[in-house]
Every structure is written in C-alpha cells, then in structure tokens.
Amino acid sequence: MDYIHEVVTMLEKAGLMESVDSAALTMLARNYSIFIKASKQLEKDGLTVSSDRGNLSPHPAIKIAKDSEMICIKLMEKFGLTVKDRSKLPALGANEENPLEAFVKGMKEVR
Question: pTM to 2 decimals?
Fold first, then answer.
C-alpha cells in the first residue's frame, strides 16, 4: 500500500501526523481496499445480477463500493486529503500536544 506511505509522509511533512492517527489511517486503507475490490467485481460481473426467476437487480457490490467510498471520503476530509479540506487543517507547533493524544495519555484503567 504505497499510497498510505505517501499519505503518512505528506502529513508528517505538514506537521499534521500524530501517533494516534494510525487507527484512522488503517480504516482509510481498509475501506479503500474494499472499494477497489468491489469496483473490480463490478467490472467483472457488470452492474446487474439476475435472480433465479430472471429478474434483474443492482449488483450487491454497488452498495459495498458506495459505502466504502463514503467512509473514505469522510476520512480523507479529516486528514485534509482533499483540496478543499487540506487548507483548513492547522499544523501543530513542535511543542504543542494533540488534545486527543493528551486525553489518551491521561486515561487510567478503572475496574
């Protein structure tokens, strides 16, 4: 997944990458992979499927591709990976701690 490496490099250069971002980037990578697989399945099978009675209906992979695409777009917006959103993300200063990371560090296990 070279594109993930490129995204991480771009975010690090911009001062936007934090260690807590790895889970969200993993979700982005997985959903992008699902989108690609569903798209390839649609290219292979076509956009419709036939029932046992001969009725045509949309291929189930259309919904899978659409759902994963929407998740990817939302995550891409959060990371500033769209032209519009990239300009909105402020870079953290060198000594400034990400608020989420500070919260996670301060969490104590309660049983």
Answer: 0.65
Question: Within 10 A of 93 (CB to CB), how many other CB atoms are there?
Answer: 8
pLDDT given at position 97: 58
Does 11 have pLDDT greater than 90?
Answer: no
Place of tokens 């500033």: 80
End-to-end C-alpha distance for the chain, whole angstroms: 39
- Which stretch of DSSP H or E encloses residue 48? strand 48-50
> Across the chain, how many H-helices and E-strands are there?
5, 2
**3-state helix vs strand vs coil in the chain, percent to 5:** 65, 5, 30
